[in-house]
Structures are given as structure tokens and as C-alpha cells.
Amino acid sequence: FAELHAAVPGLPIASSRVLPGLVLRRDFAAYCPAGGDLRVVLVTEPLRPVLAAPSVEFVVDSEDQYQASLQWITRRTEAVMKHLQSNNVKLLLSSVKQEEIVIYYAKLHGISVVECLSSEEVALISEITGISPYAPFGDNIQGEITETAVAMFFQPLLLGSKRCVHIGFTSMCTFQPHCLILCGPVDGVIEQHAAALQGAFTMLEQLFKTVDQ
User: pLDDT value at position 37?
Assistant: First the structure.
């Protein structure tokens, strides 16, 4: 329930509404309006490659070697973003904060980016879409990306003074997500309404389980 409702203090309760899809309570790190086939990829690791594993020491002997290493990182990052673009990926959802070079090449290739998703949001998106996180740093980054979801839309959404991300997924299951926008004069009132609604939904869920039995 926490991922399927958003609180908006400072507005009358009558402004509350239900929106189709998911509302992520953060802004785009990069936003590139897109239409047509909206492919979405989920990642849980930085897309900027590293020169060595965390437990391995990487020794640079000269300035030339250091610059060559930076150039390799840049080329590799650009190659990953080109690969996403060639697979019609328009939206990158990341559980980690991506570095500026990733955001730069994402914008350059028309890919929107949302960062710092919670583990609960990642799990919910995986459940809705049926996809697993994409790992780009195998031996081959030229093939088809199979772990992509389809979105009907994604767009900025302003809730009060907070900028959010609104995404409508094509669900792979019978569950069609909707997000409840709860408005109220102060946070305390909204929390009371949210708790009451969650209790009502829990009761209905138990009732339907009893009927099914």
C-alpha cells in the first residue's frame, strides 16, 4: 500500500484522486519526452563501468595510462547507452544513483532516467512487468535486451510542490496498478485517512479470500 499511494499536504481532501499506473515520489534525473514503443529497463547497479572489482587494486603508472582509462570508461558508458537506444529503451529505472556521465549520455540518446528507487519499488515494478534487473557488463552488449517492460506513458507529475514521476505500465498479470493521491490540510490528517483505507483494503482482501475458499 505504501508504494501505491502518495500524500499531498496543503490541499483539500476533495482534491484526492486515483491515477492509473505508478507514482514515484522523485523527479527525473533526465527527462526526454517520447512516444511510440516505450521500452523500460530496470537496473540495480551503476552503468558507469569500473576498472577493477572492489577488492582488486588497480594501479596507474602514468598520466597517459590514467587518461586512457578515463577514455575507456567514457567509450564503454556511451556504448551501453547506444545499446539501450538501439533496443528502443526510452526509460531507465535505477535503484542506485547514476554518475553524471551516464545522465549525459542518456540525454544524448533520448533516454529518460529515474534514480534511487527503493527496494520495495523495484520489487513492485518487477512483479507488475515480469522483468528482472538488466546487467549490461557481460561479454556482449550488442544483442537484444530481453528484460524490457512496455510503458503506455511516462511523464512528470506535480503533486503540490513536489515533482514526481508518473508511469503507466502494460501489466503482465491481472493486477493493474493504480495510485491513490491522498490530499489533506496537514500530514496527520492524511496519515489517518491512509491508515483507514489500508485497513479497509485489508478487510476486503480477507473477505475475498474467505469467499474463494
Answer: 80
